[in-house]
Amino acid sequence: MIRALFTAATGMQAQQLNLDVIANNLANVNTTGFKRSRVDFQDLLYQTMRPAGTRSGSTEIATGVQVGHGTRPVATQKIFAQGNFQQTENPLDLVIEGEGFFQLARPDGTIAYTRAGAFKRDSQGQLVNSDGLVLQPALTIPADAQNISIGTDGTVSVITASSPNPQQLGQIQLARFVNPAGLNAIGRNLFLTTQASGTPTTGNAGQQGFGSVGQGFLESSNVSVVEEMVNMIAAQRAFEVNSKAIKTADEMLALANNVTR
User: Fold this and answer.
1) Of the residues 44, 59, 231, 234, which has the maximum number of CB atoms within 10 A of its CB?
2) Does the structure show a pLDDT above 60 at 42?
3) What burial class does residue 257 get, using C-beta atoms within 10 Å of its C-beta: 0-12 exposed, 13-18 middle, 19+ buried?
4) Using an 8 Å Cβ cutoff, are 156 and 169 in contact?
5) 43-86 per-position pLDDT tens digit
6) Phi, psi angles (nearest 5°) of residue 164
7) In the predicted model, what is the mean pLDDT of residues 134-156?
């Protein structure tokens, strides 16, 4: 009976974390490029009271007796499914249709990766994100640029006041990973590499498995509000039933303690 108390408690703790993840998904339903998370659970150790396959006289025990000790969360996995596209008509808003990440240079020299393509020009004309991190490879837009065109392969061309002919400035390269779910999310729509994610492979958009780049669009969060609400209800009911198990075990203990001769 004591085992039931601790077993049900692990279920309540697991559902608390599950609700935390669901709440974060819902909070970021309007965050550009956000990827929802999912909690993976795993059952705990089992106490074997009678192993299967043991013999009782001339017969063999087909099934044994095992009692589990609850559950635990083992992973919060990012689901990198494609989000919906939102048209903005801003020439510096970019979306990746397919696999790949934009590369951003951090102040310490490391590279961060993102699916959020809301870029701007800084005071030097470089393409940067909302936090001022420079898109890699670095591209500088001339101050007199009148028209900015970004092709599906990431090629950036401009028409300036001094030259009516398109001038190619460079090409945006994307990065992809063997295991993107192993990336380390650090907030601000950024990911860092880990040993689990593997080293990044960089290349041009639309080639060798990389997605294509779309201009004037942003990728919305891939969070489904309806699905998350259903998950929240399921988590709440699982929490309730585990708390009921604790209450029932407590009542049984109270009965056992009050037994008189």
Assistant:
1) 231
2) yes
3) exposed
4) yes
5) 999 988 888 888 777 788 888 888 999 999 999 999 999 999 99
6) -75, -15
7) 91
How does residue 260 score in pLDDT terms, banded at 50, 70 and 90? Answer: low
Tally Cβ neighbours within 10 Å of residue 28.
18
For residues 19 and 143, give the distance between their C-alpha atoms in angstroms, rounded to a whole number: 48
Q: Residue 251: in which H helix or E strand, if any?
A: helix 225-257
**Residue 261 clears pLDDT 60, i.e. is over it:** no
Under a CB-based contact definition with an 8 Å cutoff, are residues 72 and 42 in contact? yes
Token pair recorded at residue 245: 């198990």
Dihedral over Cα of 23, 232, 230, 37: its sign: positive
What number of H helices and E strands is found in the chain? 2, 22
Tokens of 41: 């659970």
Residue 237: its H or E element:
helix 225-257
Please give the C-alpha separations between residue 161 and each of 92, 150, 166, in angstroms, as whole numbers: 19, 18, 11
pTM (2 d.p.)? 0.89
